[in-house]
């Protein structure tokens, strides 16, 4: 009982806008019941509180399913020394990586040799890994380079774990070697160049490493000279997904490496889209580390960053240049980092340092098109530097810096929009994928196959989403360009940008709404109606402000299907739509007289609120001036609503007042006034008012022709409504539609010419 | 899978009892989907219940003969409840594990370890409050389930529950305030 009444009081109190009155009401309603008063007050307080646990739909974060169980993994009896894996006998274990263990293995047949054997940890789809490896195998076999460790073989253990057999390299990771041997910068660069050549060789054979990092580059001393060997070529691809940021993230705890060497495109998780330039980026990180002692983004920072933050850093943040990094390393860091172990103090001149900066930053460019196109080119530039020749890498121009900035912002923008779009698109993709999966299952009915299908579907959905992300990026830029050009009245450019956006992302409602808006603004009604109809067909959130005037255009151009669909949605949604938009959208259609009455009442309330500011027109604040501008529109809408409601007296009063008020669409109420007079039986006044309306139309048309414009100087929504009203008034008052006016054709011609440049 | 469509049709034609058969089916399918997601997605990814619910719908009902909304309403009501159960079961499991405190044995069967929350306790509190609320206002509690656990919008919830969007908003305001009051009870005194 108490609850029922607390609910009732709560609802009633919500209706009261004024806080003071509301408090008073609650007090009165609860009379002597202090408990009730407290309960209702608490409810109201919660209602006003901005944050509430249920404000957002629940979203659950996924945690690793297998949490590290400490040292458990280290001892797997199946893979202890002495055990056989295929034809290989395991000997000592020499390493443990993110995806497996590495052993020295003795091969018995066909040749006796020692090799490194890498066993992939359980949890990977072995057959797939091997299949992928087989696909790459021929190419891998073609690689023959002194700086690349050869890959001999691949197989599956009895426990279905894939393994790889590689040339055994007894070396230490690149960075460790440089540091412990205190290599000078030129020596480091020379060693690095040989790595570049190795990578170049692999690239020429069509092999991308995808996981270049110090632990995959082992250095040995051969005849007193350091010899670098890149290991694991082709393995990364075979293990497939293991190199996207996601999997690396899940393996943080057990990983040897970090995402520090990962290229932005890898961080974007577009696995399909990783090419040789991704390796160039990783080489850039290596070079950075060789020069400064740390990777561009501190590994511990990347490790502690959340998943999204990690991706953002890699994709968006510009790392400090190597020389900056060196000079800003504080003393503490200098002592502990290996910078002080750079060996002989060969401080390069400032100019040289700058050159090195450019080389590194070029390799590290976020946009892979701006990186060195090949590892060989990177090597050449380093050699040029070593020989004191000007390097190919140039300092970025300011234009180029600007575009970098724009690009960064684009990413931010798109990330934002993506969240909003994710629901729409995510559902659409998953629907499609799910249907595919069901069909497949019906055909096969094999549980295993089903599981794999689902995984494939998930991957396909993901890559589709990634493609979408790319397209959204370009769309966002195109729309921004369109708006900027439209603001500057460069119509052809604006039109072109919008049109391109409609081609890049045709299923995105906004591209159609925006181009439609431009068309409408220029007076290209038919084209605008086509665009808007398209947007309606796709569907969009009804609270879009871009919706303003859309129903009007659809009605005027006779797109009745799209118009009806939109009207229905406007009627059903009851608040989020900006009120004036909704009101005008409804009034232009066949609104019921009850509906019109309600609208009229709401408009009157709005008017009542602004009427005070009209009192002393001398000292209008800016805000009041705005209120005044809207006052005119609001008078007009109110009058229109009254007219539709059958309230002719009030309609006349409001409409005439709107013609006296100062606003952009002043005068568009004239045809409505004619209709009002007609309905009231004042035939003479009706005809007279209609003539005024006609005169107003004549003036607008003539002015536009004089200015060679497709539309008069007035917001297009006002213009289109005026045309609709005038047509209606002609039918009501004169009994026929207005005669075809050749001036409209001329306007159309101007409008079309505007976008032709 | 045609079974779900069949049940929906039964409900449509007035067989209210059929509704109780719906939940277990929907629940199983959603659990299965969630598990799949867990395996194919990485840690830190967010699982969108909204997407899951819609995916379950597509798998169970399909889109061949786009059914009417009142039909779908039953489905979404069941799905929201299923989602709630899945998440709560998970939160409970996480919660008790955390309490167990034995980090070395902090191991979870893959099937089980579906979801974690930033704050499992918060969700469990909300769940308790919602259960309490359902005793008083069962319809409004259903609305909360639809919107919070299945991510339905105002309009969608209105259609699913067969009430007007305006009523949805009013009820939502009350549910929100009521739950807020219940959960913030210590904070404001």
UniProtKB/TrEMBL annotation, chain A:
<keyword id="KW-0808">Transferase</keyword>
<dbReference type="GO" id="GO:0005524">
    <property type="term" value="F:ATP binding"/>
</dbReference>
<keyword id="KW-0547">Nucleotide-binding</keyword>
<feature type="coiled-coil region">
    <location>
        <begin position="434"/>
        <end position="471"/>
    </location>
</feature>
<dbReference type="InterPro" id="IPR011009">
    <property type="entry name" value="Kinase-like_dom_sf"/>
</dbReference>
<dbReference type="InterPro" id="IPR008271">
    <property type="entry name" value="Ser/Thr_kinase_AS"/>
</dbReference>
<keyword id="KW-0723">Serine/threonine-protein kinase</keyword>
<protein>
    <submittedName>
        <fullName>Protein containing Serine/threonine protein kinase domain protein</fullName>
        <ecNumber>2.7.-.-</ecNumber>
    </submittedName>
</protein>
<keyword id="KW-0067">ATP-binding</keyword>
<dbReference type="Pfam" id="PF00069">
    <property type="entry name" value="Pkinase"/>
</dbReference>
<feature type="region of interest" description="Disordered">
    <location>
        <begin position="315"/>
        <end position="349"/>
    </location>
</feature>
<keyword id="KW-0418">Kinase</keyword>
<dbReference type="InterPro" id="IPR011990">
    <property type="entry name" value="TPR-like_helical_dom_sf"/>
</dbReference>
<feature type="domain" description="Protein kinase">
    <location>
        <begin position="88"/>
        <end position="386"/>
    </location>
</feature>
<dbReference type="GO" id="GO:0004674">
    <property type="term" value="F:protein serine/threonine kinase activity"/>
</dbReference>
<dbReference type="InterPro" id="IPR000719">
    <property type="entry name" value="Prot_kinase_dom"/>
</dbReference>
<keyword id="KW-0175">Coiled coil</keyword>
Automatic annotation (TrEMBL), chain B:
<dbReference type="InterPro" id="IPR036388">
    <property type="entry name" value="WH-like_DNA-bd_sf"/>
</dbReference>
<dbReference type="Pfam" id="PF07638">
    <property type="entry name" value="Sigma70_ECF"/>
</dbReference>
<keyword id="KW-0805">Transcription regulation</keyword>
<dbReference type="GO" id="GO:0006352">
    <property type="term" value="P:DNA-templated transcription initiation"/>
</dbReference>
<keyword id="KW-0731">Sigma factor</keyword>
<dbReference type="InterPro" id="IPR014284">
    <property type="entry name" value="RNA_pol_sigma-70_dom"/>
</dbReference>
<protein>
    <submittedName>
        <fullName>RNA polymerase sigma-70 ECF-like protein</fullName>
    </submittedName>
</protein>
<feature type="domain" description="RNA polymerase sigma-70 ECF-like HTH">
    <location>
        <begin position="1"/>
        <end position="184"/>
    </location>
</feature>
<keyword id="KW-0804">Transcription</keyword>
<dbReference type="GO" id="GO:0016987">
    <property type="term" value="F:sigma factor activity"/>
</dbReference>
<dbReference type="InterPro" id="IPR013324">
    <property type="entry name" value="RNA_pol_sigma_r3/r4-like"/>
</dbReference>
<dbReference type="InterPro" id="IPR011517">
    <property type="entry name" value="RNA_pol_sigma70_ECF-like"/>
</dbReference>
<dbReference type="InterPro" id="IPR039425">
    <property type="entry name" value="RNA_pol_sigma-70-like"/>
</dbReference>
<dbReference type="InterPro" id="IPR053812">
    <property type="entry name" value="HTH_Sigma70_ECF-like"/>
</dbReference>
